[in-house]
Amino acid sequence: MLNSLRRIHAVCRREFFAGLASPSAWVFLVIFVIMAGVCTFVFSDVLAVGQADLSPFFNWMPWLFMFLMPALGMPMWSEERRTGTFDLSLSFPIHLWELVFGKYCAGMALLILALALTLPVPITFFVLGEPDTGAIICGYLGAILVGSGFLAVSCFCSALSKSQTASFLLALLLCAILMFTGWDRVTGLLYQWLPETLCRMISYCTVVPHYQAFQRGLFDTSEIAYSILITMLFLFFARTSLAFSASNGGGLLLPGAWRDRYLWKQTLCAVFAYGVAAYVFFCLALTASAFRIRIDCTADRAYSLSAEAKAAAASLTRPVTVRLYVSKTTVDTPKDLQSYSERIKWLLREFAKASGGKIITDFIPVEPDSREEEAAVVEGIEPARNSGGEKYFLGLSVSAGQHCLPLPFLSPKNENMLEYEILRRIMTVQNPKRPVIGVMSLFPVLGREPSPQTGKSGASAWYIFTELNKDYTLAEVPMEIKEIPESLDVLMLIHPFGIGQETLSAIDRYLVNGGHLAVFVDPMSSYAIAQARSQKDLTMIDKLESSLEPLISAWGLQYASDKLAADMNFKFDQLDSNGIRRTIPTALCITADGMNSVNPVTAGLTSLRMNYSGFFTKNPKSEVVLDAEPLITTTNYSAIADSSALPEETIAAFSTRNAQDGEKLPLMWHLRGHFPSAFDHVAKEDAEPGEVFLFGDSDMLFHDACVAQSTDEFGQKIIVRKNDNITLIENVLETLCGKGRLAGLRSRVPMSRPLTKINESRTRADLEFKDRILAIVEESTLLQKQVESIRRQLIASGGNAQLTSAQQNLLSTYAQKDASCKREIRELRLRLRQDIDRINNTARLINIVVVPAFVILCGILWGILRKMKWRRHE
What residues are paired with 584 via a beta bridge? Predict the structure, then answer.
């Protein structure tokens, strides 16, 4: 064995350095590096996304390998067979398989060198942001394995022909087949002409599905086994082809060749060897799929069963049955749904394993018009329909005793919530008693029936409350009440405008005696503004701000209902009708930098939306002793704005300050302890400590701030969470109810990794040029209105109107002034993007020009050194 390794190493070394001695290897390296840079920074324009995500970079790798690996592998054997050196190699004391593997290793060394030359791409992202190191390493490993398979295919094709051109074209064809056989259209055509079993075998060989796990940051043993097996398969094919050629069986097309019985024997042996190798390949691949192990390499462990889920599953006290209904695979079944169903099965197996047998899984294949389909419909599973009207089931039901909860359809777009949604239903059927949440609000958050008496139209419940209704019993509490019902586990106060003293006293008494509150006050309710505009309810204008005084002061905090928190790091940008990006510093898009990473309520959250939020500061004169912890704050790049101030006025406040000059303004507090009374209420002797979560915004509950409508694979409308607002509220309520076990699961969304350097540059440019751009736009708009007014005056008078000299001058110079305004706006826009374009162009220059130039320089130096070495030997 050791001698074989030495011989393989000798062949690999000789072939590698012989390859570097020819210009073709250096041309390959240069083209690969240039194409990788162009595809990443030009075609995908990854920096424009604003995220330190290298997925587009790795997405291009199979396509680059499909074209470049045939070029790298075509001279491996074709050139030796053409020049006759192959026969000379057979005379050496070395086995044929050692020759094949040695040449393959030399090609892999060159491939790894090419990938190493692309390291400036992730380095660029590390300079501009904080990418996921584990996902990058996993992506490079996947790229090496994909390249290995394509190189083995090229090696086999090179062994079939003495012509390098024929070898290249044949390898390109086989690599394209491995790339395209997994496409739905190609699969549909295969199903029309080939048996179903053969079609599935061909679809399994396609490369892209086996590469996707590595792109996500998953180390999957079955995918590694696939890559190794397909590499070994085609290397065996290459060895068999070379052995066939070495046995004088290469002249298949010579006259009278097929009259030779020995040729027939060698041909049949080769075909039999191919068949046996393919059979062994599929057997080993299926075995590897059955005993697969997955390791999540991502920094946030987004694709593995969390410790919270394992602990919750292990704590079950009675059996729970989970039935997964999946339609059988057909030609029209989307490939992503097929792979997603496999991920769901893997997750359910992990749940069953963690529960110690308490979770019983049942995977039920569903066929049209079958008993299984009827059972799925009875249990609440809803099929999706494609454009042809065909149904596809992918849902599950969770049952324990008489309780059964369905997940009607599992869309891949909600994959980040899959673990939580399954475990939530498991825990609900395990403990069917639902906590009672009281909801007190000025707004119809729980929905409203139309009232002919008052003339108010009906309103649907806010989306977040339809989600909460799945786990809690929601009870509406009137704004005027003398006593908070003892049956409530938690009381939610949402925008308590105009709340009476009697109700405030009842809330105070409830809290002093150990109550649990979630309070959402608001200095400027955008929902009230929207209602005033859309519903023409002018009474809402007087209900924009809310407070909860004197309770907030009694808790030792200060709150101003006419002040907003502004933050340029969390600002919201929107495009106006003129295409100008408008910055709103008080519409906060909060990232992980503004969240408490220790408290389980906010730990793991990555994005929140709070429009026009107020803030709370500690009263330095207060002697209240409570366990007070801020959970959401602004950054230091913050300011205090009046609720009536325009965004431009707020931005102006930042123009004279540094990014670290401000103070962090708390937007959310968590208060615990024995609360003092604002109305001199005396707590009961056995009263437990109270608990309050205090928010400075109520609009964060409205569905426009929480979710967005999307379209699934079948064209159906689905609701997708666009941030962690709902997750935060669910965490808060579970904590108040004393059941915070699922908080960590809801927070398990892939982390947002912004390109901080680009965002900082954009913020600086906004402050520098935004005011001037807005002033020019206003000037241009005013100028246009004045000209339109003069033109209407002329039209109304039939062209006989007497114009003043100022009006005549305005008409004559309008075109020139308008062009001047547009030109200045274009120049300012260019300057606005100047720093960002400079970063983008620098990244492109380094990765597309400098690195290839470095490779060319290395190639030239390598050639010079080799020539100098030859001259010394002469």
Answer: 572
Tokens linked to 432:
């069917």
Q: How far apart are CA 455 and CA 717, in angstroms?
A: 32
Task: Give the integer Cα–Cα distance in Å for 495 and 521.
Answer: 5
The Cα 212–Cα 18 span in angstroms is 35
* Helix 307-314 and helix 418-430, axial crossing angle in degrees, nearest 10: 20
Task: Name the pLDDT band for 208 (thresholds 50, 70, 90).
Answer: confident
pLDDT in tens, 354-397: 888 889 999 988 888 888 888 888 888 888 776 666 788 889 99
Give all strands (DSSP E) within 278-389, no chain letters. 294-296, 320-327, 359-366, 384-385
DSSP track, 135-179:
HHHHHHHHHHHHHHHHHHHHHHHHHH-S-HHHHHHHHHHHHHHHH
Helix or strand (DSSP H, E) at 692: strand 690-695
If one compares 665 and 789, the residue with the highest pLDDT of the two is 665
Residues 6+ apart with CB under 8 A from 258: 252, 264
User: Which CA distances in Å does 723 have to 263, 414, 462, 589, 701?
Assistant: 68, 12, 16, 9, 12
Amino acid at 99: L
Q: Are 653 and 584 in contact (CB under 8 A)?
A: no
List the alpha helices (DSSP H) in 833-850. Answer: 834-844
Q: Helix-strand-coil percent breakdown of the chain, rounded to 5?
A: 55, 15, 30
Which H helix or E strand runs over 778? helix 756-796
- The whole-angstrom separation of Cα 9 and Cα 774 is 68
- Can you give the pTM of this predicted structure? 0.65
* The two structure tokens encoding residue 372: 């299984």
DSSP 53: -
Provide the b/e sequence for 786-796 (b: ≥16 CB within 10 Å). Answer: ebeebeeeeee
First to last CA, the chain: 38
- Give the whole-angstrom CA distance, residue 491 versus residue 484: 9
User: Cα 47–48–53 angle (5° rounding)?
Assistant: 50
Q: Is 672 helix (H, G, I), strand (E, B) or coil?
A: strand
- Sign for the CA dihedral angle at 332, 336, 341, 342 comes to positive
Q: What is the pLDDT of residues 69-90, one digit of tens each?
A: 999 888 888 888 777 777 777 7
The backbone torsions φ and ψ at residue 754, rounded to the nearest 5 degrees and listed phi first, read -70, 155
Give the orientation angle of helix 805-832 with respect to helix 756-796, to 10 degrees.
160
Gyration radius of the chain over CA positions: 34
Q: What is the pLDDT of residues 388-405, one digit of tens each?
A: 667 888 899 999 888 888
Closest-CA residue to 554 (of 507, 520, 590) = 507
CA distances (Å), origin 460, targets 29, 346, 536, 543: 61, 37, 18, 21
Pairing of β 403-407 and β 394-400: antiparallel
Q: pLDDT digits over 796-806, tens only?
A: 666 666 666 66
The 3-class secondary structure across 506-523, one letter per residue, is HHHHHHHCCCEEEEECCC
Contact 731, 511 (CB under 8 A): no
Model confidence at 574: pLDDT above 70: yes
Task: Compute CA distances 490 → 516, 691, 734, whole Å.
Answer: 5, 10, 10
Is beta strand 391-392 parallel, antiparallel or unpaired with respect to 218-220?
A: unpaired
CA distance 392 to 373: 10
| Residues 306-317, mean pLDDT to the nearest whole number | 82
List Cβ neighbours of 727 (8 Å cut-off, separation of 6 or more): 605, 721, 746, 747, 749
pLDDT at 871 over 90: no
C-alpha to C-alpha distance for 551 and 506, rounded to whole angstroms: 11
Cα within 13 Å of Cα(638), Cβ side: 23
